[in-house]
Amino acid sequence: MASFLLLVVFLLFGSFSARAQAGYSPPGARTATGRLKTKVDRLSSLVETLLSQQSDLTARVDSLSAQLSEERDKNRELALNLTQALHKLDSMTSTLYEHDTVIKQRLQCACEKLIPVTEETSPTESTGPVIEGDCAEYYSSGRTTSGVYRIGLLPGHVDAYCDMDTAGGSWTLIQRRQDGSVPFNRTWEEYKHGFGNKSGEYWLGNENIHLLTNQRNYTLRVELEDWDGWILYAEYTSFWLSGESDQYRIHMSGYWGTDRNAMKLNNEQMFSTVDRDNDEDREYDCSQERGQGGWWFASCGYTYLNGRYLGNCGDSCPWLQGIIWGSWKGYFYSLKSGSMKIRPTEEVSTTKPRPSVPPADTETDDPTIEGDCAEYYSSGRTTSGVYRISLLPGHVEAYCDMDTAEGGWTVIQRRVDGSVPFNRTWEEYKRGFGNKSGEYWLGNENIHLLTNQKNYRLRIDMQDWDNQTRYAEYSTFRVLGEYGDQYRLHVSGYNGTAGDCMTRYFSNDGMRFSTVDRDNDLNSGHCCQRRGQGGWWFGNCGNSFLNGRYLVSCGRSCEVWQGVIWHSFTGSRESLKSVSMKIRPY
Ligand SMILES: *[C@@H]1O[C@H](CO)[C@@H](O)[C@H](O)[C@H]1NC(C)=O
Ligand SMILES: *[C@@H]1O[C@H](CO)[C@@H](O)[C@H](O)[C@H]1NC(C)=O
Ligand SMILES: *[C@@H]1O[C@H](CO)[C@@H](O)[C@H](O)[C@H]1NC(C)=O
Ligand SMILES: *[C@@H]1O[C@H](CO)[C@@H](O)[C@H](O)[C@H]1NC(C)=O
Ligand SMILES: *[C@@H]1O[C@H](CO)[C@@H](O)[C@H](O)[C@H]1NC(C)=O
Ligand SMILES: *[C@@H]1O[C@H](CO)[C@@H](O)[C@H](O)[C@H]1NC(C)=O
Ligand SMILES: *[C@@H]1O[C@H](CO)[C@@H](O)[C@H](O)[C@H]1NC(C)=O
Ligand SMILES: *[C@@H]1O[C@H](CO)[C@@H](O)[C@H](O)[C@H]1NC(C)=O
User: Fold this and answer.
1) Which among 349, 500, 549, 550 has the fewest CB atoms less than 10 Å away?
2) Residue 3: its pLDDT value, please?
């Protein structure tokens, strides 16, 4: 608009001067010129105002655009900040996911040790929870998580740790040693009333044990662990204590276990402490001589589970001072941990379902149940088939391979036709699943129990879809327990034709077991989930994976790392046609 006005002014000036130059000067022209001049003056002043207004406007536009660009910069920064924040969130989410898995795992572990008593003492529960008579009653009322529970005992109540997991659960712990945090050199009064920490080491108290074991018939179970992780079990199907008037005398019978009955001497003995010598020995005060713990000393005997907690001093601990089961580790060895637990005896026969299937072998009248297939083999039962294996606390059936490599192999895993899915939960892998004549997993607990009795070797036989067969043998094979070790595997000493996929690269040795619902592997992801959902001793994630998906028709182009895999034999894209894992003692 400003330029248009300038043009008008210019044209007006132009015509005026043209006329002036032509010398045209009619009468009254002077007045006309004057009028024009004023007009022009007015116009030019108008233009000036307009011009100044324009520069005003320009300045305003300039400042606006500056503001705009500032805004734009701010926006850009905001977007940048936002992206950074999103990145941060992303990484936080993944960390959170990892933490979540860890927490879930810890929670699972913690639940096993949790103290359900706190829930009971909660004041909000006005009705008051039922206090059961022992851990077996809690178990059958559906409280099947290990932890400290309150036990109803006349005249008062007492807290005790309930082991709801071992050998069918329902166990009330009367004693536990595990770290030496609680001294066991105590007086008669202390042993009478009990001492220690119910979540850790403790003695339930002779009076309490007496009261409990006089209500029902109880089974006593002793569990001991040495410093190499070997476990001893001992059970007495009958166990009770007399009252204080009879010095808490012990009565036990019906022994069975993995070692000799080293408490035989203690049977029918009175209890002794440093301040009350009730033992059979006239010369010595056994408690004083043997580590100052309270016990049913004979004269003085060779088993003291309340001895001093000496730690790992190997075979050179002070003689007969530590925690000792004489016939097992000798008198110079102090055990790493141990517990004594009781469960109503009749409970065992009712809660433990008897296997309805008779042994598949024909000689059903043969009452001998052997400890593994090797024992059947050496007793002359040399036909492959399903046999019953004697294992504490119950029995289990397993397929015995009596033909391969001199026979006597107890099969712990077999895949032959894909009829049994192997994507299973922790609990299923723990207890075992499948069909003993076909595909199955013997169960981590059973494998653990078996391989802790003797030294076993592992043999894996496999076949690909061209009917080629290969094998891998490992001279040692051992699976540790669930608690603390999550069925950790020890395997070593390869020999065979299939190549070593378990100890060479990405070793499975020392790895804990993982399932879809419990990630114990070393990988930041979840090996099991990524590799066909079967349970295995995943490291990071490894080259062997015999519990993968049974894939049939994809030949050598199966989905990578999903099948039944032994990498050095068939690679990561082919799933084995058949495989079996079997163990035999030396
Ligand atoms: C972007 O982040 C920086 C540093 O955190 C902060 O100083 C700045 O104010 C943020 N900018 C905006 C626009 O939020
Ligand atoms: C238990 O042992 C500690 C350390 O040896 C000692 O101080 C304490 O007096 C002992 N207690 C009993 C009851 O012997
Ligand atoms: C009891 O033992 C548990 C497990 O060892 C431990 O975490 C806890 O701190 C102990 N409590 C006391 C009061 O000593
Ligand atoms: C304990 O078992 C014995 C025989 O084994 C039986 O006679 C007795 O009645 C049982 N006691 C209780 C309290 O069940
Ligand atoms: C196993 O796989 C089947 C089929 O893919 C699925 O339905 C089932 O939920 C899986 N089970 C577990 C425990 O992952
Ligand atoms: C178990 O497997 C065998 C062999 O594959 C088969 O003959 C049998 O029918 C299976 N039994 C069950 C209960 O699935
Ligand atoms: C593998 O063996 C089976 C059974 O003996 C037979 O049916 C099949 O044809 C064989 N496959 C090959 C590739 O030789
Ligand atoms: C593998 O085992 C066989 C038979 O036990 C033995 O003869 C051979 O020497 C072993 N090979 C290796 C490399 O250990």
Assistant:
1) 349
2) 53
User: For position 123, what pLDDT does the model report?
Assistant: 35
Mean pLDDT of 89-94: 65
Amino acid 211: pLDDT: 92
DSSP-derived pairing of the beta strands 440-441 and 337-344 = unpaired
Q: Which amino acid residue places its CA nearest to atom 14 of ligand 6? A: 435
Q: Which residue do the tokens 């022009």 mark? A: 40
Atom 1 of ligand 2 has which residue's CA nearest to it? Answer: 185
Q: Which ligand is nearest to the CA of 533?
A: 5
Please say whether the beta carbons of 474 and 451 come within 8 A.
Answer: no
Any ligand 5 atom below 6 A from CB of 423: yes
Ligand nearest to the CA of 78: 1
Ligand nearest to the CA of 337: 3
How do residues 469-496 score in pLDDT, each as one tens digit? 999 999 999 998 887 788 999 999 999 9
Cα dist from 13 to 30, 40, 213, 428, whole Å: 16, 8, 129, 106
Ligand 3-lining residues (CB < 6 angstroms)? 197, 199-200
| Residues 112, 148: Cα–Cα separation, whole Å | 10
Residue 197 DSSP code: -
- Amino acid of residue 366: D
Please, what are the domains in the chain?
135-351 (3.90.215.10), 366-585 (3.90.215.10)
427 ligand 5 Cβ < 6 A: no
Q: Which two tokens stand for residue 410?
A: 């107890």
Ligand nearest to the CA of 421: 5
Phi and psi angles of residue 462, each rounded to the nearest 5 degrees, phi first: -140, 160
Q: Which residues contact 346 (CB under 8 A, 6 or more apart)?
A: 216, 217
Cβ contacts of residue 431 below 8 Å, gap of 6+?
Answer: 443, 445
Separation of CA 352 and ligand 4 centre (Å): 19
- The number of CA neighbours under 13 Å toward the Cβ of 437 is 4
DSSP codes, 143-172: --S-EEEEEE-SSSEEEEEEE-SGGGS-EE
CB-based burial of residue 536 (10 Å sphere; 0-12 exposed, 13-18 middle, 19+ buried)? buried
Bridge partner list, 452: none
Residue nearest to atom 4 of ligand 3 (CA): 200
d(CA 147, CA 159): 10
Question: Scanning the structure block, which residue is given the tokens 């002359």?
Answer: 380
> What's the whole-number mean pLDDT along residues 1-30?
52
Shortest-distance atom of ligand 1 to CA 81: 1
Least confident of 96-105, 214-223, 433-442, 444-453: 96-105
Atom of ligand 7 nearest to the CA of 465: 13
Give the SS3 label for residue 355.
coil
Closest residue by CA, ligand 5 atom 9: 423
Is it true that the peptide bond before 27 is cis, omega within 30 degrees of 0?
A: no
Q: Which of 479, 535, 533, 545 is nearest to 509 (CA)?
A: 479
> Residue with the nearest Cα to atom 14 of ligand 1?
78
φ/ψ bin of 70: left (φ > 0), alpha (ψ from -120 to 50), beta (otherwise): alpha
- Give the Å distances, CA to CA, from 255 to 214, 326, 339, 425, 448: 20, 16, 17, 35, 22
Angle at 274 between CA 271 and CA 279, to 5 degrees: 40
Alpha carbon distance 354, 343 (integer Å) = 18
- What is the Å distance from ligand 6's center to 382 Cα? 22
Q: How many CB atoms lie within 10 A of CB 53?
A: 12
